[in-house]
Every structure is written in C-alpha cells, then in structure tokens.
Amino acid sequence: MNLLEEAVNELLPESYHHLSAKEMSKRVQAIRQKFGEALFIPCHHYQKDEVVQFADSIGDSLQLAQAAAQNKKARYIVFCGVHFMAETADMLTDDTQKVILPDLRAGCSMADMADIYQLEQAWPRLLERFGDTIMPITYINSTAAIKAFVGSHGGTTVTSSNARQIVQHALTQKKRIFFLPDQHLGRNTAAELGIPLDEMAIWNPIRQELEDVQTSDDRLQVILWKGYCSVHQHFTLKNIAAIRKNHPAMQIIVHPECPYEVVQAADMAGSTKKIVDTIENAPAGSEWAIGTEANLVGRIIQAHPDKKIVSLNPFTCPCMTMNRIDLPHLLFALEKLNQGEVIHQIQVDKQTTTDALAALNRMLAQS
Questions:
Q1: pLDDT single digits (tens) 123-144
Q2: Superfamily of domain 232-311
Q3: The pTM is what?
Q4: Could you say which architecture CATH assigns to the domain 111-230?
Q5: Is the CB of residue 212 less than 8 Å from the CB of residue 202?
Q6: Could you read off the pLDDT of 153-181 as tens digits, one per residue?
Q7: DSSP 17
C-alpha cells in the first residue's frame, strides 16, 4: 500500500469534525500524560497554535529531527510538520522509534517540485554538457530520495542558516554547483557570495533544459533548479514599497526563500531562527515588517506586544500543506496509537537513508 492509498484508507472520521476544540484538547492531553516520555511531539514553526500548544519542541525541520533523534526515551515521534521533515526524523532516529505524520497529505510544494525521476534525467545531461565540474547541493527542504541522490553523487545538504558557508566551501571543491529545489535560496546565497546573476542559470525539470543562460558555459557557476516556496514567492516589491510609504520607521526582514529582488530591497534577510532571534533581541518600541509564513508572524506578534510588528504582505496565507496537520488529525493519530495501532508511519528504506545521511553528514562536518 502506498502513502496515498493509506491516506485515503485512513481519512479522518466524520465524528472528529463535530468535536469542540476544548474536548479535543482534553483528549490529546490525556493521551500525552498516559504515554509520558514514550511520546514526543515536535512542531514546526509554521504550525497552527492549536497544534503548537502540545509541542514538546518547536523549531525548524532539521532542528526538530535532531531533537527526536536525541530523545532516546521516545518510542513514538508524532511529527507536526510536513512529509520531508518526518522522513528526516525517521532517518535520524533508531529502529525502535516510530515516526508518525498525523496527516499524510501534509506535503511541501517546494520539495515536490524536485522529483527524483526528473533529477535522474537531468544529471547525465548536465554532466555531458559540463563534465565532472558540478557539485549537487540540496536544501534540507527536499525529499529523502533527492537527498540520497545528492549524497551518492558527492553532494551535500544545506539549511537556510548555513547555505552561505556550505556553498562557499562547495565552490572550492567544484567549479559550479547544481542547487535544488529552491531557486531563490540558491540565487540569494550565491549573490551574497558575490557571484553575478549572469553567471547563474535555471534548470527547467519539465523541459529538461537550461533557461536564462546569460553567459558562456565556461563562466557559468550556479545552476538553479526551477522550484520555489509557494508562501515566500508571494512577497513582492510592491509590499516593500507599501511598508516604506505607510510605515517609514519599520525595518523589513525577510526569509531568503523570497525572490532576489525582495531580499535586495529588504533591510535584512535570514533563516526562521534569525528572524525569531532578531525580533527577540530588538529594542522595545522598534517596528518590523516580516516576510515569512503567516502563522509564525502571528505568533511573533503575540510574543512581542512591546513592538510594532506586521506581516510584509497582510494577504499572505499560512502554508496550506503544513496546516493540514490540525487538532482533529493530531487527536485521531494519537487515539489510534492509544488503541495500539500505528497509522501514517513514515519509513525510509536503508539504502536511501544511507545515501541521504551521507549528504547530511557532509553538511554537518562543515557547519
């Protein structure tokens, strides 16, 4: 049975739609108390408040997977995030631990833009054109299969926090990099290192060809997979212009998954952790416009009533796939577990795990 079939077979029962939030919260809490340290619930920053309230740890994807791996007392990891995050947790935890994703439909549009079959077609074409001069690099926001391919071809993973450091090192090892799946993080990172935009090109995985080539093959340093984050893609120069006009004292901080022109026009850019830490350390009375996911921005606003904080784009929606993990699905997964049935378990095969961890370990060795 594949994951889609399992998701269909384990659709949320109708009865859960009629429960009050208070009743669901009470039942979740009771199961948490029963399982104690055997149950660990990591929650990504972008999750809804109704889920985050039960988090044992809140953070970015790799941070949460590492926390799960370090928690040897936990038999069940109920990961409130998206599919690739649960995969990473499964690869890092041991065989006695089971990783559960409350709703298998919780995917990542960016990760899904890099399909392993497309990559297997692209790689030999790029080698034919450029020879053995390319290091593949994949953002942690990618599937286990993509990480495994990169790992088995001498490449590495990156996070939004360490991308500059890892890319800089990669370019001392190979003449050029092939960056998946987020073109914006790749472009922004390369530009920060001083690489001109005309020495970058885009790989179109649908057409299986390079686009936006503005220089000779010999000068090309960065090949960007044509993918993006569906949330961060929607922050624009118009949003920045509106903030500059209506709130001239506001500083603008954005995530590096935003388009290049937005990152350039902002006052600063950084990972989710950098955004959270920057606002945390900012003086009372300071004003901020934040270009990242709506749930996180809302949580930051609530945590800092002494500062004036707004979303850079007030019409940006929360991450819709992330938000498929909600209180009813969390309760359903936990009640199944309480009945002795593990549903929606995420399992990565051993070979994929080995190759993917090779990419991950190369990153950790350089961080």
A1: 999 999 999 999 999 999 999 9
A2: NadA-like (3.40.50.10800)
A3: 0.92
A4: 3-Layer(aba) Sandwich (3.40)
A5: yes
A6: 999 999 999 999 999 999 999 999 999 99
A7: G
